[in-house]
Design a protein that fits this description.
Blueprint lengths: L10 H5 L6 H8 L3 E6 L9 E7 L4 E2 L2 E3 L3 E11 L5 E2 L4 E4 L8 E14 L7 E3 L6 H17 L2
Antiparallel strand pairs: 1-2, 2-8, 3-8, 4-9, 5-6, 5-7, 5-8
Helix pairs in contact: 2-3
Length: 151
């Protein structure tokens, strides 16, 4: 059994397998922090949970993943692209390769738990119609994730 107390300074790092820690560094460049927990031992077929934290006003760019996913707001709030504001306990889903975002953290920031059906679909894919530094960062994280997984 593993426990990752949020109050611990190495919370995100402790839960993240060594092969996926590069995403933390790249994410920090984009103003977010994240940690990934594998629900199993396989970097491809195991389900995964990503804890994602955005600072107040932080934006998650429009992107997709190659698997089904569920996301739950744990703390704070998140404004969806359509203007809806999600608060703790709110849940949303997306299917494989379904684009979502951009999403913007509320005035207190946001912490979410993003659950992926398979780790193989964890790598983000930027929306090809988004031409920004965020899309470039998303593409970089996705490419490195697929490389780390041997995909």
């Amino acid at each position: 059994m593993a426990v990752y107390p949020y109050s611990e300074p190495d919370y995100f790092d402790a839960m993240t397998p060594e092969q996926l820690r590069f995403a933390r560094e790249l994410g920090k460049e984009g103003g977010l922090d994240l940690g990934t927990i594998l629900v199993g031992d396989d970097l491809v077929s195991s389900p995964a949970v990503m804890m994602l934290e955005l600072p107040p006003g932080g934006t998650l760019p429009r992107h997709s993943h190659g698997t089904h996913r569920v996301e739950v707001v744990i703390r704070g709030s998140l404004q969806m692209a359509d203007g809806r504001v999600l608060t703790p306990g709110d849940v949303w889903t997306s299917g494989p390769n379904e684009f979502y975002g951009p999403h913007t953290a509320g005035p207190e920031g946001v912490l979410t738990a993003e659950i992926f059906a398979t780790c193989a679909g964890l790598a983000p894919t930027p929306d090809p119609e988004s031409a920004s530094d965020d899309a470039e960062m998303t593409a970089s994280i996705g490419a490195k994730a697929r490389e780390a997984q041997g995909l």
